[in-house]
DNA sequence: TATGAATGAGCATTCATTCAT
DNA sequence: AATGAATGAATGCTCATTCAT
């Protein structure tokens, strides 16, 4: 049996880790396909290539399974989004272009299969797992807002955006991006063309800059 | 006992419209409480005060039941929203104030129990009933966007907003309102104070006006 | 409302009689199509073009409905069969030909839709309505055996068949006809060609005559 | 408790073949008692001493359950019948006696509980499972006819029956046995005495021999 | 640890039957 | 007499979960 060295430094049997991960992946796939209530543990076990009781051995419960699968997906989605925001660290000379670039990439991430499924699943189970929402939002939207706010704050400091509450600016920029996108994609049930996505990104950035760009220097 | 004495004092057949509506109302209540998959027809029947087969007599299917209940709720929500937008028809002298008023009222509607539940349910079942999403979005968000666009177009014509695409303006104003609100209410799992709601409304309108207000008249 | 004179001589409202008959016909059609357990009263009502409670008004019960429908069908089938046997009253010179003719016609009747359905339904419900079997058999198979026995007795008396128990002869002739036919038609699930039907009839009569024909007159 | 001590004294896994067979047996018992449509899976499960889902685990469907139960019963009945026919392989000196013996034994088998139930069930469901009829007939009546034809062919070859089509002879002999028996037992709803059964057997063989016995040897 | 097998609880749906009109 | 509406009682089937190996 192969083994890997876990972050903690202890040897851990690899088969175990692999299997747990396989189950979580399978779970997210199935939950995304059917929704929580309609998913059955048997299908998840099949997808993961293990027997049903093995799923229970590793993850106790359908509910626990759901929580872990969702959290894993949230982390993955967030990593992608943070990478996009990070690009604003070196915006170059053309601020508008940099923002549009970030906006477009972010929309692409948000329209991805996993991102959509995550949103749909958390939204759907809001009533049953309110604390899960809290966790997921904390690790995704809120965290993303903070990261973006950091960048915008720097841009204010460097005089490229006017001073003001960067959290609010970030919140609104995100809203200007995701709101229209959700509407146009009909909550993800309709394909939005690249061109239209670009339009949304450009319009969002345009409005954002009108509202938040520093007054043109040199204006009397 | 098949007839009841209505408040008006006349005998009214209990059976007909009455019961169908009661079932639809009960269905929405239960679906909102449990989600589609977790709701059982028996509970809906209980909530409506009828026997289970009566539900089937009137509405064929669990699916049909869902569709009709959702559509009815969508229409109700939309009526409220349209009434709010309609107020912009006579904005008075203070445009900002008028917009803030509308914005605040709209947020109130969107945070209402029914509105939230509607959003949650449609989102959750997006995969299973894509055409339902289309219908509901058509009757709510899109319709609302159009109505708002109408108002904004008028305001452009009368020179109070700068010229431009009113549909995009409406789309963005709505995004600036609902996006931050969803975030702060954690998709509706957390209560947002009146004060905070007002803040969101004010911030949205502020950003909107910066981007869309007509250049100050008298500027050369 | 139109009225007819019933056999008893009293005036009877026609609508009533018509409707009852329509229901019985519809019932047999549906029972034949689905079997007893799988038939639902609603489908019978639809087939008869009346409302469900009307069926109950006329026939009390699903069970009663079944019994009456079956009995009516049994009488109809029997009338056909008796007519066929009756032809033996004047057998003409060629006894073999007369028997083959009767045999073929009888097979045709027994393979008819109604006859088959009747057999299938009574057989199927033998456990649930044993007395119904008794009644139906009495009005069909047994009665047919008696009628045939009558004819055969006459043929014995006139010296064209050898003396013996005509009831047994009739019973065996019928068995030689229906047994092979049921086998070849796979209990009615397979079409039997006219030619094959003729073969069965001829073979049955041939065997029957070998066993029952009077010794050739004039043999020393 | 998952293991029982078998009569042999060894521990035997309770779960496997054991249970499947118990379910099939129980299914046939219940189907025979109530008919297909009136049988409910719960009752079968009770009869088998297992939980309802166990039935589904092993046999998928009510329909599948029916098919397998019927086929098993068909095989069992056929084995009995073939054993009876096999006795004709050594007919001894007295052909008539040998045939009568076989005939009587065959009637006993055909009047047995299982045989009757099998006939009733297949007949009843002819419309719903036509292919099942085909299978069952193939494994029972047709197979039996062939086996009997084999024996009769040998008897022809050895000069004890006159030459001719042995398949037809077999078909007719079987018809002469089962036809009258069904009639007299009222499709199995009435007990037929041993004496009467013997009479039917004797009459059938008598008629058969008249028609099929070789001409008395020594006749010029 | 992994699993084949078993099960208690539940759910959508159907149907025979009955009221009240 | 005929019917629209309503319902109590089943029934087939699924699923999360647990044993015993």
From TrEMBL, chains A, B, C, D:
Transmembrane segments: none annotated. Pfam families: TetR_C_7 (PF14246), TetR_N (PF00440). Keywords: DNA-binding. InterPro entries: Homeodomain-like_sf, HTH-type_TetR-like_transc_reg, HTH_TetR, Tet_transcr_reg_TetR-rel_C_sf, TetR_C_Proteobacteria. Gene3D superfamilies: Homeodomain-like, Tetracycline Repressor, domain 2. The keyword DNA-binding applies. It comes from the Bacteria. Residues 40-59 bind DNA. Residues 17-77 form the HTH tetR-type domain. This is TetR/AcrR family transcriptional regulator.
């Amino acid at each position: 049996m192969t083994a890997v060295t876990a972050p903690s430094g202890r040897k851990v049997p690899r088969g175990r880790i692999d299997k747990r991960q396989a189950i979580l992946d399978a779970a997210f796939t199935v939950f995304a396909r059917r929704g929580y209530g309609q998913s059955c543990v048997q299908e998840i076990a099949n997808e993961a290539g293990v027997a049903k009781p093995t799923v229970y051995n590793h993850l106790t419960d359908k509910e626990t399974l759901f929580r872990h699968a969702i959290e894993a997906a949230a982390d993955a989605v967030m990593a992608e989004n943070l990478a996009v925001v990070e690009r604003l660290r070196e915006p170059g000379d053309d601020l508008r272009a940099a923002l549009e670039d970030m906006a477009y990439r972010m929309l692409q991430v948000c329209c991805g299969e996993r991102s959509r499924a995550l949103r749909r699943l958390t939204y759907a189970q809001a009533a049953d797992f309110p604390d899960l929402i809290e966790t997921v939002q904390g690790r995704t939207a809120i965290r993303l807002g903070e990261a973006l706010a950091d960048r915008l704050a720097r841009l204010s400091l460097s005089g490229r955006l006017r001073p003001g509450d960067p959290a609010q600016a970030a919140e609104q920029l995100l809203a200007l991006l995701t709101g229209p996108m959700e509407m146009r994609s009909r909550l993800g049930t309709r394909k939005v063309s690249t061109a239209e996505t670009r339009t949304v990104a450009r319009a969002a950035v345009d409005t954002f800059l009108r509202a938040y760009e520093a007054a043109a220097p040199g204006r009397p």
